[in-house]
Protein backbone atom coordinates (compact mmCIF):
# COMPACT_ATOMS: atom_id res chain seq x y z
CA UNK A 1 0.00 0.00 0.00
CA UNK A 2 1.27 3.45 -0.92
CA UNK A 3 1.08 6.47 1.28
CA UNK A 4 2.27 10.05 1.31
CA UNK A 5 3.43 11.80 4.44
CA UNK A 6 3.33 15.60 4.43
CA UNK A 7 5.62 17.25 6.99
CA UNK A 8 5.18 20.92 7.76
CA UNK A 9 6.89 23.34 10.14
CA UNK A 10 4.44 23.99 12.97
CA UNK A 11 2.60 27.28 13.14
CA UNK A 12 4.66 29.82 15.01
CA UNK A 13 7.94 28.24 13.93
CA UNK A 14 10.02 30.63 11.88
CA UNK A 15 10.29 29.21 8.36
CA UNK A 16 13.09 31.06 6.58
CA UNK A 17 12.75 28.87 3.48
CA UNK A 18 9.07 29.75 3.24
CA UNK A 19 9.88 33.43 3.70
CA UNK A 20 12.46 33.31 0.90
CA UNK A 21 9.98 31.53 -1.37
CA UNK A 22 7.14 33.96 -0.68
CA UNK A 23 9.43 36.92 -1.23
CA UNK A 24 10.58 35.43 -4.55
CA UNK A 25 6.97 34.82 -5.57
CA UNK A 26 6.12 38.44 -4.81
CA UNK A 27 9.17 39.47 -6.79
CA UNK A 28 7.73 37.57 -9.76
CA UNK A 29 4.53 39.59 -9.44
CA UNK A 30 2.34 37.04 -7.63
CA UNK A 31 0.06 38.43 -4.95
CA UNK A 32 1.27 36.18 -2.13
CA UNK A 33 1.00 36.83 1.59
CA UNK A 34 2.86 33.83 2.87
CA UNK A 35 4.42 30.52 1.87
CA UNK A 36 5.60 27.67 4.08
CA UNK A 37 8.01 24.98 2.93
CA UNK A 38 7.71 21.45 4.24
CA UNK A 39 8.69 17.99 3.11
CA UNK A 40 6.92 15.14 1.35
CA UNK A 41 7.76 11.46 1.88
CA UNK A 42 6.23 8.80 -0.37
CA UNK A 43 6.19 5.47 1.42
CA UNK A 44 5.48 2.08 -0.12
CA UNK A 45 4.36 -0.23 2.68
CA UNK A 46 4.27 -3.99 2.53
CA UNK A 47 0.92 -4.24 4.26
CA UNK A 48 -2.47 -3.88 2.53
CA UNK A 49 -4.33 -3.34 5.78
CA UNK A 50 -5.28 0.34 6.04
CA UNK A 51 -5.46 0.40 9.83
CA UNK A 52 -2.12 -1.30 10.18
CA UNK A 53 -0.60 1.01 7.57
CA UNK A 54 -1.89 4.07 9.39
CA UNK A 55 -0.57 2.81 12.72
CA UNK A 56 2.85 2.14 11.21
CA UNK A 57 2.96 5.51 9.45
CA UNK A 58 2.13 7.32 12.68
CA UNK A 59 5.01 5.51 14.39
CA UNK A 60 7.33 6.41 11.52
CA UNK A 61 6.36 10.05 11.89
CA UNK A 62 6.90 10.09 15.64
CA UNK A 63 10.22 8.23 15.52
CA UNK A 64 11.94 9.50 12.41
CA UNK A 65 10.02 11.43 9.76
CA UNK A 66 9.23 14.43 11.95
CA UNK A 67 10.55 16.20 15.00
CA UNK A 68 7.32 16.66 16.98
CA UNK A 69 8.75 19.74 18.68
CA UNK A 70 8.89 21.73 15.44
CA UNK A 71 6.95 19.80 12.80
CA UNK A 72 3.43 18.52 12.24
CA UNK A 73 2.39 15.85 9.76
CA UNK A 74 -0.49 14.60 7.66
CA UNK A 75 -0.81 11.09 6.29
CA UNK A 76 -2.52 10.41 2.97
CA UNK A 77 -3.22 6.76 2.19
CA UNK A 78 -3.70 5.87 -1.47
CA UNK A 79 -7.28 4.90 -2.23
CA UNK A 80 -8.13 1.39 -3.51
CA UNK B 1 47.61 4.92 37.03
CA UNK B 2 48.76 7.02 34.09
CA UNK B 3 45.18 7.07 32.77
CA UNK B 4 44.26 9.27 35.74
CA UNK B 5 46.64 11.97 34.60
CA UNK B 6 45.36 11.70 31.03
CA UNK B 7 41.64 10.91 31.13
CA UNK B 8 40.09 9.13 28.18
CA UNK B 9 37.61 11.25 26.24
CA UNK B 10 36.10 9.29 23.36
CA UNK B 11 35.35 11.13 20.12
CA UNK B 12 32.53 9.54 18.12
CA UNK B 13 32.90 9.42 14.34
CA UNK B 14 29.83 9.20 12.10
CA UNK B 15 29.88 8.93 8.33
CA UNK B 16 30.07 12.64 7.46
CA UNK B 17 31.72 13.82 10.67
CA UNK B 18 34.50 16.23 9.76
CA UNK B 19 35.65 17.80 13.00
CA UNK B 20 36.52 14.58 14.79
CA UNK B 21 40.26 14.94 14.17
CA UNK B 22 40.25 18.58 15.29
CA UNK B 23 38.39 17.56 18.45
CA UNK B 24 40.87 14.74 19.02
CA UNK B 25 43.88 17.04 18.52
CA UNK B 26 42.45 19.73 20.79
CA UNK B 27 41.63 17.26 23.57
CA UNK B 28 45.06 15.64 23.33
CA UNK B 29 46.68 19.07 23.34
CA UNK B 30 44.72 19.83 26.53
CA UNK B 31 45.87 16.67 28.28
CA UNK B 32 43.40 13.90 27.43
CA UNK B 33 43.64 10.69 25.46
CA UNK B 34 41.03 10.99 22.75
CA UNK B 35 40.41 7.77 20.85
CA UNK B 36 38.00 8.06 17.95
CA UNK B 37 35.07 5.64 18.02
CA UNK B 38 33.27 4.53 14.86
CA UNK B 39 29.50 4.90 14.93
CA UNK B 40 28.84 1.16 14.60
CA UNK B 41 30.49 0.44 17.96
CA UNK B 42 28.03 -0.69 20.60
CA UNK B 43 30.12 0.47 23.51
CA UNK B 44 32.53 3.25 24.39
CA UNK B 45 36.23 2.54 25.00
CA UNK B 46 36.80 1.07 28.46
CA UNK B 47 37.55 3.75 31.02
CA UNK B 48 36.01 6.56 29.00
CA UNK B 49 35.52 9.49 31.34
CA UNK B 50 33.70 11.62 28.77
CA UNK B 51 32.51 11.46 25.19
CA UNK B 52 32.43 14.11 22.47
CA UNK B 53 30.10 14.13 19.48
CA UNK B 54 31.93 16.25 16.90
CA UNK B 55 30.83 18.58 14.13
CA UNK B 56 30.13 17.62 10.57
CA UNK B 57 27.22 16.37 8.54
CA UNK B 58 26.44 12.91 9.93
CA UNK B 59 24.62 10.78 7.35
CA UNK B 60 24.60 13.82 5.06
CA UNK B 61 22.14 15.52 7.43
CA UNK B 62 19.47 13.78 5.35
CA UNK B 63 15.88 14.31 6.46
CA UNK B 64 16.87 16.65 9.34
CA UNK B 65 20.23 17.29 10.93
CA UNK B 66 20.92 14.55 13.47
CA UNK B 67 17.74 12.65 12.64
CA UNK B 68 19.46 9.52 11.37
CA UNK B 69 22.62 9.61 13.49
CA UNK B 70 20.52 9.25 16.62
CA UNK B 71 19.72 5.67 15.59
CA UNK B 72 23.34 4.58 15.16
CA UNK B 73 24.50 1.84 17.57
CA UNK B 74 26.99 4.07 19.36
CA UNK B 75 24.21 6.48 20.34
CA UNK B 76 22.67 3.80 22.56
CA UNK B 77 26.01 3.55 24.34
CA UNK B 78 26.19 7.35 24.61
CA UNK B 79 22.64 7.51 26.00
CA UNK B 80 23.43 4.83 28.61
CA UNK B 81 26.67 6.63 29.50
CA UNK B 82 24.75 9.91 29.90
CA UNK B 83 22.02 8.36 32.04
CA UNK B 84 24.72 6.95 34.32
CA UNK B 85 25.96 10.52 34.79
CA UNK B 86 28.75 10.36 32.19
CA UNK B 87 29.94 13.61 30.64
CA UNK B 88 28.75 14.14 27.07
CA UNK B 89 29.65 17.13 24.90
CA UNK B 90 28.03 17.73 21.50
CA UNK B 91 29.62 20.29 19.21
CA UNK B 92 27.59 21.67 16.28
CA UNK B 93 26.36 18.51 14.49
CA UNK B 94 26.95 16.70 17.77
CA UNK B 95 24.61 19.21 19.45
CA UNK B 96 22.05 18.61 16.70
CA UNK B 97 22.29 14.85 17.24
CA UNK B 98 21.88 15.18 21.02
CA UNK B 99 18.70 17.24 20.58
CA UNK B 100 17.38 14.79 17.97
CA UNK B 101 18.07 11.96 20.42
CA UNK B 102 16.23 13.77 23.21
CA UNK B 103 19.36 13.99 25.37
CA UNK B 104 19.19 17.78 25.17
CA UNK B 105 16.15 20.04 24.93
CA UNK B 106 15.08 22.00 21.87
CA UNK B 107 15.84 21.54 18.18
CA UNK B 108 18.16 23.11 15.64
CA UNK B 109 16.59 24.76 12.58
CA UNK B 110 18.02 26.45 9.48
CA UNK B 111 19.61 29.84 10.25
CA UNK B 112 17.07 32.64 9.86
CA UNK B 113 19.29 34.16 7.16
CA UNK B 114 19.37 30.81 5.29
CA UNK B 115 23.11 31.48 4.92
CA UNK B 116 25.85 29.15 6.05
CA UNK B 117 27.74 31.25 8.59
CA UNK B 118 31.45 30.74 9.20
CA UNK B 119 33.10 33.28 11.48
CA UNK B 120 34.18 34.03 15.04
CA UNK B 121 31.25 35.05 17.21
CA UNK B 122 31.18 36.77 20.60
CA UNK B 123 29.69 34.65 23.37
CA UNK B 124 28.85 35.11 27.04
CA UNK B 125 29.28 32.38 29.63
CA UNK B 126 26.12 32.19 31.72
CA UNK B 127 27.13 29.38 34.08
CA UNK B 128 30.53 28.42 35.38
CA UNK B 129 29.52 25.67 37.83
CA UNK B 130 29.40 23.01 35.11
CA UNK B 131 31.94 20.43 33.90
CA UNK B 132 32.06 22.29 30.57
CA UNK B 133 32.58 25.87 31.73
CA UNK B 134 34.41 25.66 35.07
CA UNK B 135 37.55 27.34 33.72
CA UNK B 136 35.53 30.43 32.73
CA UNK B 137 34.55 33.39 34.88
CA UNK B 138 30.85 34.25 35.29
CA UNK B 139 29.76 36.51 32.43
CA UNK B 140 33.08 36.04 30.70
CA UNK B 141 33.04 37.06 27.03
CA UNK B 142 34.46 34.44 24.65
CA UNK B 143 35.26 34.52 20.96
CA UNK B 144 34.80 31.16 19.26
CA UNK B 145 34.01 30.33 15.62
CA UNK B 146 30.71 29.00 14.37
CA UNK B 147 30.29 27.29 10.99
CA UNK B 148 26.80 26.07 10.39
CA UNK B 149 23.72 26.36 8.23
CA UNK B 150 21.33 24.95 10.83
CA UNK B 151 22.22 26.52 14.14
CA UNK B 152 18.99 28.31 14.94
CA UNK B 153 18.09 26.71 18.25
CA UNK B 154 14.37 26.55 18.92
CA UNK B 155 12.30 25.91 22.03
CA UNK B 156 8.75 27.13 22.56
CA UNK B 157 8.17 29.84 25.16
CA UNK B 158 7.18 27.37 27.86
CA UNK B 159 10.25 25.17 27.40
CA UNK B 160 12.60 28.16 27.20
CA UNK B 161 11.16 29.58 30.43
CA UNK B 162 11.67 26.23 32.15
CA UNK B 163 15.28 26.00 30.94
CA UNK B 164 15.97 29.57 32.09
CA UNK B 165 14.60 28.80 35.56
CA UNK B 166 16.71 25.62 35.74
CA UNK B 167 19.81 27.49 34.60
CA UNK B 168 20.30 25.18 31.63
CA UNK B 169 21.29 27.96 29.24
CA UNK B 170 25.04 27.90 29.84
CA UNK B 171 26.21 29.84 26.80
CA UNK B 172 24.65 32.71 24.84
CA UNK B 173 25.52 34.71 21.77
CA UNK B 174 26.43 38.31 22.56
CA UNK B 175 25.28 39.10 19.01
CA UNK B 176 22.75 36.57 17.73
CA UNK B 177 24.03 35.27 14.38
CA UNK B 178 21.32 32.77 13.43
CA UNK B 179 17.98 33.54 15.07
CA UNK B 180 18.30 31.20 18.06
CA UNK B 181 15.56 31.90 20.58
CA UNK B 182 16.91 33.45 23.77
CA UNK B 183 20.28 33.98 21.98
CA UNK B 184 21.05 30.41 23.05
CA UNK B 185 24.43 29.13 21.86
CA UNK B 186 24.76 26.19 24.24
CA UNK B 187 22.36 24.28 26.48
CA UNK B 188 22.71 21.75 29.30
CA UNK B 189 20.49 18.84 30.27
CA UNK B 190 18.79 19.05 33.67
CA UNK B 191 21.64 17.20 35.42
CA UNK B 192 24.31 19.35 33.71
CA UNK B 193 26.30 16.31 32.55
CA UNK B 194 25.30 16.70 28.89
CA UNK B 195 26.10 19.92 27.03
CA UNK B 196 25.64 20.92 23.43
CA UNK B 197 26.80 24.07 21.67
CA UNK B 198 26.94 25.33 18.10
CA UNK B 199 30.31 27.17 18.37
CA UNK B 200 33.44 25.08 17.80
CA UNK B 201 35.79 25.22 20.81
CA UNK B 202 38.09 22.68 19.11
CA UNK B 203 38.89 25.32 16.47
CA UNK B 204 39.93 27.86 19.10
CA UNK B 205 42.69 26.27 21.16
CA UNK B 206 45.72 27.81 19.45
CA UNK B 207 46.44 31.54 19.17
CA UNK B 208 47.60 30.90 15.60
CA UNK B 209 43.92 30.46 14.76
CA UNK B 210 42.85 33.72 16.37
CA UNK B 211 41.45 32.62 19.73
CA UNK B 212 42.24 30.24 22.53
CA UNK B 213 38.87 30.66 24.24
CA UNK B 214 37.79 27.20 23.11
CA UNK B 215 40.49 25.77 25.38
CA UNK B 216 38.58 27.17 28.38
CA UNK B 217 35.58 24.99 27.52
CA UNK B 218 37.44 21.86 26.41
CA UNK B 219 39.97 22.30 29.22
CA UNK B 220 37.06 22.38 31.69
CA UNK B 221 35.88 19.09 30.23
CA UNK B 222 39.35 17.56 30.54
CA UNK B 223 39.53 18.71 34.19
CA UNK B 224 36.10 17.20 34.91
CA UNK B 225 36.95 13.99 33.07
CA UNK B 226 40.12 13.66 35.12
CA UNK B 227 38.09 14.04 38.32
CA UNK B 228 35.45 11.53 37.25
CA UNK B 229 38.18 9.08 36.22
CA UNK B 230 39.56 9.28 39.76
CA UNK B 231 36.11 8.69 41.23
CA UNK B 232 34.50 6.04 39.03
CA UNK B 233 30.72 6.39 38.88
CATH topology tier name of chain A: Mth169, Chain: A
CATH-derived architecture of chain A: 2-Layer Sandwich
Strand order of the largest sheet of chain B: 2-1-3-4-11-10-9-6-7
- SSE string of chain A: EHEHE
- Summed up, the domain count of chain A is 1
The appropriate CATH architecture of chain B is 3-Layer(aba) Sandwich
CATH-defined topology of chain B: Rossmann fold
Mean pLDDT of chain B comes to: 95
> Which residues of chain B sit in consecutive blocks of at least 5 with pLDDT less than 50?
none
Radius of gyration based on Cα positions of chain B: 16 Å
Series of H and E elements of chain B: HEHEEHEHEEEEHEEEH
Anisotropy-based shape of chain B: globular
Count the helices of chain A. How many? 2
How would you describe the overall organization of this protein?
The complex is a heterodimer of chains A (80) and B (233). Chain A has 80 residues and is an alpha+beta fold. Chain A has one domain: Mth169, Chain: A (2-Layer Sandwich), CATH 3.30.1280.10. Helix content of chain A is 35%, strand content 26%. Chain A has a 3-stranded antiparallel beta sheet, with helices on one face. Chain A is elongated. The model of chain A has no long low-confidence stretch (mean pLDDT 94). Chain B has one domain (2-230): Class I glutamine amidotransferase (GATase) domain (Rossmann fold, 3-Layer(aba) Sandwich), CATH 3.40.50.880. Chain B contains 6 helices and 11 strands. In chain B, the strands form 2 sheets. A 9-stranded mixed beta sheet of chain B has the order 2-1-3-4-11-10-9-6-7, with helices on both faces. A two-stranded antiparallel sheet of chain B has the order 5-8. At the A-B interface, helix 1 of A face loops of B.
Amino acid sequence: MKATVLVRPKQGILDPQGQAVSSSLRHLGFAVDDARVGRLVDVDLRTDDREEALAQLRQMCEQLLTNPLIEGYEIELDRE
Amino acid sequence: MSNLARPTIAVVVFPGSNDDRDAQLALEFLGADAPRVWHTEESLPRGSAAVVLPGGFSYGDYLRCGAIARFSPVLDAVARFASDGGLVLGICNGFQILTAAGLLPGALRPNNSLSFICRDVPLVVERTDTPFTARCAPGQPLSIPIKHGEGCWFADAELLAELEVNGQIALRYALNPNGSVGDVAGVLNADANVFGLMPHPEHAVDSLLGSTDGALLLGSLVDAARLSAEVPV
